[in-house]
């Protein structure tokens, strides 16, 4: 009788250890899209599932390559005919933390255009971001290993921002 109880206990113990493997986490982005807002910021919206029932937060990173155009304007809102314009390119990124409920998370994360660097306007003129274009847009869940990655295809452009 003891042997039978021991065998039954061993079977239940093995089953108890195998069950978590059956419910293993499998993070994946269900949706990911991007737009450029009126200020020239890239805004990515996403929904991710498969994060498991024990996760409480997810670290999400947004990265892209960006090209921004800056130009000087006088106090009347006109740009001088001189070449007071600068194009800046480079990688941009932002990180955020999002609550996980029932194994999924969703939200929006944004990143701004690269700064003008050392470009400056002469006295009496103000520097403005004219336009920005984003490519190679990627969302990454940095809270899971291996990282869950979603590439958002396309080129995202602000159009003319000023004036």
Explain how this protein is built.
It is elongated, with a radius of gyration of 25 Å. It is mainly beta and 163 residues long. The strands form two sheets. Strands 3, 4, 6, 7 and 8 form a five-stranded antiparallel sheet that branches. A three-stranded antiparallel sheet has the order 1-2-5, with no helix packed on it. The longest helix is centred in the first third of the chain and has 21 residues, at 2-22. The termini are far apart. It has one helix and eight strands; from the N terminus they run αββββββββ.
Task: Compile the SSE list and pairings.
Layout: H1 2-22, E1 28-36, E2 42-49, E3 57-74, E4 85-99, E5 105-111, E6 125-141, E7 148-152, E8 156-157
Antiparallel strand pairs: 1-2, 2-5, 3-4, 3-6, 6-7, 6-8
Characteristics:
five-stranded antiparallel beta sheet; elongated; 8 strands; 163 residues; 13% helix
Mean pLDDT: 86
Q: Which quaternary structure do these chains form? A: single chain
Class by alpha and beta content: mainly beta
- The portion of residues forming beta strands comes to over 45%
Radius of gyration from the alpha-carbon trace, in angstroms: 25 Å
Helix content: 10-25%
SS elements, strand count: 8
């Amino acid at each position: 009788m003891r042997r039978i109880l021991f065998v039954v206990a061993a079977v239940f113990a093995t089953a108890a250890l195998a069950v978590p493997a059956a419910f293993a986490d499998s993070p994946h982005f269900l949706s990911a899209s991007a737009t450029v807002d009126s200020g020239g910021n890239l805004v990515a919206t996403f929904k991710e599932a498969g994060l498991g029932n024990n996760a409480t937060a997810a670290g999400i990173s947004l990265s892209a390559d960006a090209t921004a155009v800056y130009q000087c304007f006088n106090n009347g809102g006109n740009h001088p005919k001189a070449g007071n314009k600068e194009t800046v390119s480079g990688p941009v990124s932002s990180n955020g933390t999002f609550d996980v409920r029932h194994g999924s998370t969703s939200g929006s994360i944004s990143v701004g255009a690269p700064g003008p660097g050392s470009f400056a306007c002469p006295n009496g003129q103000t520097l403005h971001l004219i336009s920005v274009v984003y490519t190679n847009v990627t969302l990454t869940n940095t809270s899971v290993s291996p990282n869950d990655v979603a590439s958002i295809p396309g080129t995202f452009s602000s159009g003319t921002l000023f004036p």
